[in-house]
Amino acid sequence: MASRTAEVSLSGGRFSPLARGWGLIALSVLLLGVALLLMLPYSEQAVPPGTRWPGVLLALFGVLAGALGIGAVAARTRGFLPALITLALTLLTVEVLLRAYNVPAGLIPTPSRVWQALVNARVVLLRDTQVTFLQEALVGYLGGSVAAILTALAIVRFRFLERGMLPYAGLFSSIPIVALAPVIVKAFGLEWTSKAIIVGITVFFPVVVNVVRGLQSASPLHLDLMRTYAVSPARTFLLVRVPAALPFLFNALKIASTLAMIGAIVGEFFGTTGAGLGFRIQIEAGRFNLDIVWAAIVVASILGIAFYGLVQWAEQRFTGWHASNR
Question: Name one GO cellular component term (predicted).
């Protein structure tokens, strides 16, 4: 009984004082490792011979000790804390190794250099984000998804369209976007609309196939029950087929959210008016400014994760009754 009252609560988990004390010690060692890491310069000439590797080993020891201690605490927590700790420790380890081996920034920049480039080029990257995400990815995503849903409704309503169109949907979805992008850019010009068309085509086919399968997955027993009660076909569609198709629809929308950013960035590789994350990655890679390249990649990754998370939140909001969300 006394041991239970001695436990403490931390982020939704319960820990003994010993576990909490070990976590604090590990955090202190980790902070010491970070301090030693920041003291490591980039140039071998700035360090007396034989003094670099002791500092490197101490920094690595701090990172590893922090990983073990904080990982033991985070293993019993909920939410995003374990993932954030893993990301932080990975970045620290990469920083230590790149500084220890004195890797040129033109080859692989350290995470600290990428962060500095992200801060310095934030105005340019923000403008590129507006073009790539708001104009190209989002417009193409919405347009392609709406067109796909309407097409799926027509396929389910008219059975001959299922036999005539659905096989080609699977066929065209296997075409690599890298092969399709230059053709569309040449046909529709260098403006953002050509990249939005690429995104629309990319997301169209997965959404069509999934929505058709979802609408056709309605329980025959439920459909027979609606006919027994003389429910109109339109109301039967809303009450039976639409709820059955929602999990399939959101699964397709989550896949399409990642394909949208990929399609927009790949499309910019083949021609643009001078703005966009894909254009920034291509032009700065040619100049060997890889810190800005990685900063643009980080921004694109954050946008993709946020977009996916938004769709996932909508899925939980509208399909909370489904077994997969219980």
Answer: plasma membrane
Q: Which of 261, 262, 270, 134 is nearest to 189 (CA)?
A: 270
CA distance 272 to 279: 7
CA separation for the pair 28, 70 (Å, rounded): 10
In the chain, where the domains are located: 2-103, 120-321
- The string of DSSP letters for 116-165 reads HHHHHTHHHHHHHHIIIIIIIIHHHHHHHHHHHHHHHHHHHHSHHHHHHH
pLDDT at 8 over 50: no
- How much is the average pLDDT of 305-309? 93
Angle in degrees, 0-180, between the axes of helices 242-269 and 138-157, rounded to the nearest 10:
140
Measured at the alpha carbon of residue 61, what is the angle toward residues 55 and 66, in degrees to the nearest 5? 130
Give the burial class of 243: count Cβ atoms within 10 A of its Cβ; 0-12 exposed, 13-18 middle, 19 or more buried: middle
The pTM for the full model equals: 0.76
Residue carrying structure tokens 């960035």: 265
Closest CA to 147 of 131, 179, 169, 128: 169
Find out whether 63 and 96 touch, Cβ atoms under 8 Å.
yes
CATH superfamily of 120-321: MetI-like (1.10.3720.10)
CA pseudo-torsion sign 215, 221, 224, 225: negative
Summarised one tens digit per residue, pLDDT across range 160-182 is 777 777 777 777 777 788 888 89
- Tens digits of residue pLDDT in 19-38: 555 555 655 656 665 665 55
Neighbours of 277 (CB within 10 A): 25
